[in-house]
Amino acid sequence: MNVKGTRTLSNGQTVDVHVNTGLRKICACPRRAWPKCPHSWHFSYHWKGIPYRFSLERHLGRVVSSKTEAQQVADGIKASIRKGRLHETNVVTPSVQSGDITFDTFGEIFIERFSKAREKVSWDDDVSMLRQLMAFPIRWNGATRLGEKPLGAIVEDDLEAFLRHLHSLGRSIATRNHYVQIMRTMSRWSVKKGYRTLPFVLDDSDMIRRKKAGKRNRRLEPGEEERLLAAANPPLQRLIIAALETCCRNDELLSLQWRDVSLGRREVMLRATKTKTSTDRVIPISDRLQAVFELVRHDPAGQPFGPLGYVFGDELGGRIRSSKRAWQTAVLKAHGHTPVWVWKKNRQGSGGSGRLDRQSQAAYRIIDLHFHDLRHEAGSRLLEAGWPLHKVQQMLGHANLQQTSTYLNATLRGMHRSMRTFERTRTRPTPIEPLTSDPRGGSGNSLQVLASNPACAPLISCKVSPDSDDKSLMH
Questions:
Q1: CB 207 within 8 A of CB 180
Q2: CB of 127 within 8 A of CB of 111?
Q3: Cα 324 vs. chain centroid, distance in angstroms?
Q4: Which residues share a beta bridge with 344?
Q5: Fewer CB in 10 Å around end: N or C, the chain?
Q6: CA angle, 110 as apex, 52 and 101 as ends, to 5°?
Q7: What are phi and psi of 354, to 5 degrees?
Q8: How many Å apart are CA 121 and CA 273, to the nearest integer?
Q9: Per-residue pLDDT tens for 425-473?
Q10: Rounded-to-integer distance, Cα 40 and Cα 100, Å
């Protein structure tokens, strides 16, 4: 690196500020000793948001003897990256070494140092998805599942094969999108932290381009909300109303505590530690939601719940971990089905859980209504009621406006508004002057033209042909 200036630290010490030339060493030696120290040179470069970090010696398959040679090699690699032809350089990619970590091990490191380290609320979802990904069966040099394959040998085709497997199992597009997102994040993180020289999922890959190919757009049908509330038990009724009034996710509502509710200011504070985006969010309380809060404000003894009590908890203010069973029961009952629950043991043989039988599962899949669809319904209702899109974005807690527009399919909403405007203009009567004289100048009977669609262009006058046996009109 070249020195471009100096800066003064808080303790008064003056240090050099260097220009990043794409070269560095990962060692305990001081920067000034890098040209002569025996440690290998590393390439570090960003291009269009993609980091490229790797050892030059591993990348070239040979020793780089001097800084001058390392700089020449780095300049050539940067030029190839900018042209999109990194794979065309004269580089010998070393084969996978037996000491490389497996994909299993990398997944465990990713969970500990990325998902948990960032205090991600849904890190346990990442664990579940990686467990399924690592168990995907393959055949590669003795490996029987994807997790046993070395990290350096993971290619995009492995991940696409897993996504095709998900499709064959009938998994939803939303599930596929979640897997694509975590694969993309792992790919970038592996390069950033030096576990790989290149990402195994590129931003221009077909896997990324198809990510949003089939977004979900389930809305409540007329009368469906009333049927759901009638079929739900009281705790679920309050949860459904809250979801429709706040645009909140299920976990955000179940984790809501009374310390985060201000009935005086009519506000709900969603703390960053409990939101998916790890940011605070303030939700205004509607009259309908205010009535729900007042209904559950007190415990069975008539005393207000303490600040740590859960708003949508049990009778004593304890937290309810899941509302899945109550939701599936209500959905099936609301659509005329009687749910049948069966006990299924865990694979380990210790314990189990209640699950819908096959017929009830099939009926639930046909109805295709998830609790998360209430969040989509709530945002769509606000948009249709005239809320500005950026205000709906704040209610949903999206990071950017484009995400909200895609999530609510705002283009389709605009098309519906345009259609309603068109229908109003079509049904508005438009008078058309009758023809009271003969087009040739003579007198004749009155002729009134009836237009079935006034929105169409006015009809032009017709010319009558000269007298002949053929009485047709010539336009």
A1: yes
A2: yes
A3: 21
A4: 353
A5: C
A6: 75
A7: -85, 135
A8: 7
A9: 877 665 555 545 454 444 444 434 334 444 444 434 444 444 444 443 3
A10: 19
